[in-house]
Amino acid sequence: MRKAIFPGTFDPFTKGHYSIVERALAFIDHIVIAIGVNDNKKTFFPAEKRLAMIRELYKDNPRVSVEAYSCLTVDFAKETNADIIIRGIRSVKDFEYEEAIADVNRRLTGIETILLFTEAELTCISSSIVRELISYGKDVSDFIPEGMRLDL
Question: What is the CATH number of the domain that holds 58?
């Protein structure tokens, strides 16, 4: 069984991360969406609310689970018995950076990293733009995954 983690803050606001998970499920048996939790980092939604929103989005998919983590990504991969780390990429600059990190992780831990580009039509809208639109009371339904409820 191939198990992967998709680490970071996982952006429930835009379709980009959602599409990466959907495409990865074509070749991964189980994906753990790993929500980075850092009490010192200010986020638009508190970690518990973000976790609840993402769990709701994937509640009907037994191949996806959502967990919080606060350690190194490779340590969390080992904790969850994942043999792959999935990283979402928006640009070539992101790719070069993530490729270097993937190489270090592979050499130090043996854990493979798969880099998946966000679909082209989804790269133009970032979570920070969506959060700003929300703060101004704008409709952002075109940018978020179907089924995602933004309980503000």
Answer: 3.40.50.620
Q: Decide if 23 is catalytic.
A: no
Give 49-67 pLDDT, tens digit per residue.
788 888 888 999 999 999 9
The catalytic position among 15, 17, 50, 87 is: 17
- In the annotation, is 17 catalytic? yes
Q: Which of 30, 90, 106, 131 is catalytic?
A: 90
- Total domain count, the chain: 1
Instruction: Give residue 61's domain range.
Output: 3-135
Instruction: Collect all residues with Cβ–Cβ distance below 8 Å to 13 and sequence separation of at least 6.
Output: 44, 127, 130, 131, 134, 140, 143, 144, 150
User: What is the rounded CA–CA span in Å between residue 137 and residue 18?
Assistant: 23
Domain-embedded: residue 143:
no
User: For residue 52, is it within any domain?
Assistant: yes
Q: What does pTM read for this prediction?
A: 0.76
